[in-house]
Amino acid sequence: xxxxxxxxxxxxxxxxxxxxxxxxxxxxxxxxxxxxxxxxxxxxxxxxxxxxxxxxxxxxxxxxxxxxxxxxxxxxxxxxxxxxxxxxxxxxxxxxxxxxxxxxxxxxxxxxxxxxxxxxxxxxxxxxxxxxxxxxxxxxxxxxxxxxxxxxxxxxxxxxxxxxxxxxxxxxxxxxxxxxxxxxxxxxxxxxxxxxxxxxxxxxxxxxxxxxxxxxxxxxxxxxxxxxxxxxxxxxxxx
Length: 239
Known about the structure:
Elements (H helix, E strand, L loop, with lengths): L13 H18 L1 E5 H22 L3 H11 L3 E2 L5 H5 L3 H8 L21 E2 H12 L8 E9 L6 E7 L16 H36 L23
Antiparallel strand pairs: 1-5, 2-3, 4-5
């Protein structure tokens, strides 16, 4: 019996499980979607939606909700996607300047400071000012789980995509996956069979047309001569 066992253990201790859930939630709010196992996605979904609800309350001025959000989610800083290439080409000293101010405190908003074209952004700042703003008129259901057909290598675990509602891509913009070598061989064989079948039909059509023309030609009006009928000995009359 599973009485009073409401949570998934995921084969981890309580501290490890909380750290895993926190890190996955931070990645979800940073990228908009993550790919993980189905059981981890089901375990993370209610926690992520609770964080968005707290962010909506904090956006309205609830200080307790803001403190609760920061205690559960902690802080993590990332470089905005549009400045990632520029950040990769910077020197280490320039990167430290982008991350921290002279006082040692981390930047949070991602905006430029002084001569810096941009700074890092905090997960909580993005959650409260961008994600919570998007869901102001929505009462719940901020995330969705999409099961994937492919399984994880090694243990064949079921995989799924957990994404924020509104972060999905338009089907026309999604690139078509490349065909495998086996699929290319099968397609080539099928095309060869179809091509050979077309050639066979093309050679058979002229013979068929000739036969149809012969059948359509009118026959001679004169009837064929009948063979003389055989007579029996009884029918022969003596002279």
